[in-house]
Design brief:
The protein has nine helices and five strands. It has a five-stranded mixed β-sheet with strand order 1-2-3-5-4, with helices on one face. Keywords: Signal.
Length: 231
C-alpha cells in the first residue's frame, strides 16, 4: 500500500477512535449496549448480559418474554438485556434513579432493584409495542404506552387484581393523564401517573376487546390512522 494510503488509513482510524471514545463519555448507555463486555457485563446467552453470572437473571428475562408472548400471541422483538447487580454498575452504563429503561426497539437495562420479572416485562412491553408499530411508534401517546406496560407486567403497585375493576383511583380522576405531558406531569419523584395511565388503559382494553384490540390498533396506526381516531 502506498505511504499516503497508510497515512489516510491511520487518520481515519484515529478519528473513529475519538468518536467512539466521545460516545462512551457522552452516552454510556449507547456504548454499553454496543459493547456490554466493555462495562464488565458477561454474556449469559440469548442476548442477556449481566454483571454477575447468575442463572436467575436468565430466568427473569425468559419469564418476562413469555408474558409478552402470552399477551400478543407471539413475540416479534429480540432485545439485548443489560442487568446490573450493583448501583455502581448501573451508573456506569448511564442509569439513574429508575429501576429499568427501554431503548427503542433494541435493548433495555435493569438496575439492581429492577432485576425482577415485573420490571423486565414492563420494559420489554415498551420494546414489543414499538417493534410492532415500526415507523408509527410516535402515534401512541406516552401515557398509553406506559399504562399498557403496567397492565402487561401486572404490576400490583398500580393495579387491582384481575377479575374486576383494575383501577386503584377513580376513573374520572385518571383521565387527567390523557391530556397531560407525561414527562412533566405530577410531582418530581412521584409515580402516581402510572396509576392513572394503568386505569385508563385498562378501561380502553375492556372497551376494545382486550389484547386483540391492541393488535387492531397497531394495524390501524400502521395504516396511517391517528390515535385519536381510534378512541
Amino acid at each position: 500500500m502506498p505511504k499516503r494510503r497508510w497515512i489516510i488509513t491511520g487518520v481515519v482510524a484515529g478519528l473513529l477512535g475519538l468518536a467512539i471514545g466521545a460516545t462512551a463519555v457522552a452516552a454510556p448507555s449507547i456504548a454499553a449496549i454496543a459493547c456490554p463486555q466493555c462495562y464488565g457485563l458477561s454474556s449469559l446467552g440469548d442476548g442477556v448480559y449481566a454483571e454477575r453470572d447468575d442463572e436467575a437473571y436468565h430466568r427473569i428475562v425468559t419469564a418476562a418474554e413469555q408474558r409478552i408472548s402470552d399477551f400478543y400471541g407471539g413475540r416479534t422483538s429480540d432485545a439485548r438485556v443489560l442487568i446490573c447487580a450493583t448501583p455502581e454498575c448501573y451508573r456506569s452504563i448511564g442509569g439513574g434513579g429508575e429501576k429499568g429503561q427501554a431503548f427503542g426497539r433494541w435493548a433495555l437495562r435493569l438496575s439492581p432493584d429492577g432485576a425482577n420479572e415485573t420490571i423486565a416485562t414492563h420494559e420489554l412491553a415498551h420494546i414489543e409495542l414499538h417493534k410492532r408499530l415500526g415507523s408509527a411508534s410516535e402515534s401512541v401517546p406516552d401515557w398509553f404506552d406506559e399504562g399498557l406496560a403496567v397492565l402487561i407486567s401486572e404490576d400490583a403497585r398500580y393495579l387491582n387484581p384481575a377479575g374486576g375493576d383494575r383501577c386503584r383511583v377513580p376513573y374520572a380522576e385518571a383521565t387527567a393523564i390523557t391530556g397531560a405531558d407525561w414527562a412533566t406531569f405530577g410531582a418530581v419523584g412521584s409515580d402516581h401517573k402510572y396509576l392513572l395511565a394503568a386505569c385508563v388503559v385498562s378501561h380502553w382494553l375492556d372497551e376494545h376487546g382486550g389484547p386483540p384490540g391492541i393488535l387492531t390498533m397497531i394495524g390501524d396506526l400502521r395504516a396511517g390512522k391517528t390515535f385519536t381516531e381510534l378512541q
